[in-house]
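Problem: given the chain below (588 residues), write out its structure.
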Amino acid sequence: MELCYDGALVLPSSYAVMDEEEMTYTEGGRSRTYCELGVQMQGVSKEDLKQLMNIFVTYDPMNLGVPVDYQVQGSAKEMRLKFSPKYGAHVRLAFKGGDRVKPFMVKEVSVLLADKELKDRKGEKTSLRYMDPTLPVEERVESLLSVMTPEDKMELIREGWGIPGIPHLYVPPITKVEAVHGFSYGSGATIFPQALAMGATWNKKLTEEVAMAVGDETLSAGTMQAWSPVLDVAQDARWGRCEETFGEDPVLVSQIGGAWIKGYQSMGLYTTPKHFGGHGAPLGGRDSHDIGLSEREMREVHLVPFRHVIRNYDCQSLMMAYSDFLGVPVAKSRELLHNILREEWGFSGFIVSDCGAIGNLTARKHYTAKDKIEAANQALAAGIATNCGDTYNDKEVIQAAKDGRINMENLDEVCRTMLRMMFRNELFEKAPNKPLDWNKIYPGWNSDSHKEMARQAARESIVLLENKDNILPLSKDMRTIAVLGPGADDLQPGDYTPKLQPGQLKSVLTGIKQAVGKQTKVIYEQGCDFTSLGENNIAKAVKVASQSDVVLLVLGDCSTSEATTDVYKTSGENHDYATLILNNAIVS
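Solution.
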């Protein structure tokens, strides 16, 4: 056979097809878009041709994929085989054997291209086909994959405050933020009540509005993705991350979490619900530990909120959990991350690893992988794309991808999940992300309207268990109020909070002093701190209480910004407690 550059496969003489045979057209190894074949044949009718021949457009001649669906037009001697434009490097004609009575003749096959002048997002000519926004998403994905090296693919799936992007291929970055209760990076953004407080409001509309305000401040910083909300169903109050959840009921978590996603995504942003699934019931209340629950309990409680938001809110990404599913670490559970998440629920986004979760497959925790290379292969087989942690970006893992020790089919598939998200959301065209400046207070942060919304959310989050003798509301003109306890004059915005600006928040003591009348005396005594069982001022606190008309006692946990390092925290990520008993000095 002679392969001609003008797009024709010309046979030196009439070519008799006797049994199952194939012909391949390749144009110098170049990837092009093919849309039509012209064939000259003898001994076969138009009606019989589709039963006798498959057409494949492929990048890999050893992996043909699915044949194109073509229509036969023209005369029996000169037929036109038309199909939807498809991008690839090879066109293969596969003739089926077994049912034919006699051989037929193939004289000539001409290949028609659908190439056009390509332009990028700026309207400039480009040879990179995936930069053409008019092409179907799948064509753009495969076009980009065809020019990516193993190093490029590993670069795509590593994490560095989001997706770092690949500049030489024009793959855009996607910067992210932890937005559990406000824009959490830098300093100066509005601090909204923690998620647990938002759950206590039972107010979907307010939650949606809060999420929109957080989204507005996210956009101001040039960021696009939130690693929020937390949809874990909190079932052990000793777990330090209960404050990040919307509560202990799967229906409440579904409804309030869905409202948060609806509000945030309405701003053109992307959410990453977490931690999928079953993170809220760790053994012994210890953060990041396994749970060991049955499939029934998982499906009836812990997977419910995720199923709800995946089916109703078109989430573009999802973060997996540190724990296990039916005895298998989630980081390698194809049953959970593919069969349930994608096949049952229809999730079409990409999966983000919780930080360090893939590395935990080694002896650090799960012992299912002997090294990071094996851990990477297990995670890729499960479908985990973005890796927050130290595995996909490890030098040995990258080298393993280059020399074939990383499963390339699995690597390609997780890259596809990320690229599809980018192309269908026009991120190559819009390129909306900007580098985050942690030292900048962006326009619109902590605005008056956002502060008032935060106040309203705080008001509605208050839960009154009992109002004995109608003691509340307090009169502003009472004579003496005692404010006691370690939390009375302590700013506790909660975990995942940015560094506080001076005067940004008010303590309970400050708020009470500003709210009462001039004739009211407010007396403060800390009594003790949150954790120390040593020296305390309990006796002074008791004396102050005995001299007052009413006592406000502020107890509980200590949870504050990660930027605060001189405080021993009793709540938040990696701050669990073995018991819920308050400080002995307090309860005595």
